[in-house]
Amino acid sequence: MKDVKIACYGFVDKDSGSGGKAHFFILEELAKRNVKIDFFGWRGFNRAEELQLHAGFRYIDLPSSRFNSFMDKLPTKLKSALFPIVNMLFMMHFILIRCSK
After folding, report:
1. For 10-62, what is the HEC assignment?
2. What CA–CA distance (Å, rounded) separates 9 from 38?
């Protein structure tokens, strides 16, 4: 099997509800199969400590301060409407820059 490497962003927590728990177990199974994983997330929001025990798993902390300072400048209604889109664009930009290095 060829070396496989993925970059992903999301929420992982082994003890949470369906989404975070499912993401945790998927990443854990991939890590057990020697897939190299660059996981982008916010510390304190994600619980990836167990995943970090796998040699190929790398947790990359996202810089929340830049995103939060941008969002804080927006009016409340606009912030609520734009948050999902702006959040995704910010993460994609950060991931692309980080992965290109």
Report:
1. CCCECCCCHHHHHHHHHHHHHHHCCCEEEEEECECCEECCCHHHCCCEEEEEC
2. 9
Q: Are 36 and 3 in contact (CB under 8 A)?
A: yes
pLDDT at 101 over 70: no
Q: What is the mean pLDDT of the chain?
A: 84
Confirm if 57 and 51 have CB atoms less than 8 A apart: yes
Q: Both 71 and 25 in a single domain?
A: no
Residues in the chain, overall count: 101
First-last CA distance in the chain:
25
Looking at the structure, tell me whether residues 42 and 77 fall in a common domain: no
**pTM of the predicted model as reported, rounded to 2 decimal places:** 0.68
- Assess whether 3 and 22 both reside in one domain: yes
